[in-house]
Amino acid sequence: MKKLTVLSMIAAALLLTACGDSSTGAEAKAATEAKTETAAPAKCAADGKCGEGKCGGDKKSATTETKEAVSTATTEAKEAVSTAADKVKEAATEKATAAVDAVKETATSAVDKVKETATSAVESVKETATSAVDSAKAAATTATAAVASAVDTGAGKALYAKCAGCHGIDGKTKAMGKAAPVAGQSAADLETKLAGYKAGTTNAVGMGMLMKGQVASMSDEDIKAVSAYMAGL
Ligand code: HEC
Question: Which of 35, 156, 182, 221 could bridge 230 with an S-S bond, Cβ 3.0-4.6 Å?
């Protein structure tokens, strides 16, 4: 409807020009009402204000110009719509891009935070575990040392109790007045001698069988422990 109105107005303007300055408001109104190509010349001819040849010719060119004007207006409108659409697209794209960027940033920072938290958690667990292991190791070392010293001294001392009657509490007594004192001898030497008595192969002063009876029931660990104790006398 708007296009039609525009077309009518353009046609009116052209008709006014073509028919001269003498055209009245009534003619302009009549021309404005000429909404089709056929209606316009009929009205113009009926008015008799201008020659048929001139009017007809002008009508033709006016129609062409009108068409061109409409075409131009349509093209311009199309372009305007296209430009507007492009702008809307650009704006939408920019907004979408900004939104995507914001989401990306949020996601990235969230991931970073999770990573940091996880890393610090793992580190604290590692530290706790390491210190716990260290404590356990230290405790184990202490316990082992305590057990070792208890075996070396306590067990050895207990085992020597029955030997002290002949070898002396200080280990310096010559057993049966003949045997060499056990004090001052190395743990390794004493261990070898006791192993020899147990096997029945050692007989230093003719009383090896007596000593075999003393150590026969002793285990290798007992012999080792009592030897270590005697070496310390
Ligand atoms: C009844 C006394 C007696 C008792 C108890 C006794 N011994 Fe002896 N021991 C001897 C005599 C005697 C000899 C010498 C044996 C020989 O002829 O080799 C000897 C030898 C030894 C020797 C070797 C010394 C050397 O350097 O030649 C050692 C070591 C020894 N005894 C350790 C012990 C231990 C350990 C016990 C206790 C489990 C013990 N004896 C209990 C009498 C005793």
Answer: 182
